[in-house]
Specification:
By secondary structure, the chain is of the alpha+beta class. The protein has a single domain, classed as GTP cyclohydrolase I, C-terminal domain/NADPH-dependent 7-cyano-7-deazaguanine reductase, N-terminal domain (GTP Cyclohydrolase I, domain 2, 2-Layer Sandwich), CATH 3.30.1130.10. α2 packs across α3.
Amino acid sequence: MDKVFIEGLSIQTTIGFFAWEKEIKQTLVIDLVMGWDTAKAAKNDELAKTLDYAEISTAINTFANENPVDLIETLAERMAEYLINSYQIPWLKLKIGKPGAVHNAFTVGVEIERGSQS
């Protein structure tokens, strides 16, 4: 399976369990790998037959800001489902990091895989 990826996408959104976190925007860093047959797009150099990185990056930012949650785990699960359904992605690996959330750690977060690699 071919893969299309977005790495190091930095977004500002509301996320967190504590009351003070619900009143500010925090940085999340997203890495996304999506299974996709890139040969179809490459054959005739057609953007319409591949995954548009810019469109998906914007969709990720919009989704995170329109669907505030407490946990990164919840955001990852819901975002994966949204991306799979919206773009007919058969498989994806999504990593969401929250830099600076833990003292002495560069970042913390979750990484999930959903769908099927065939």
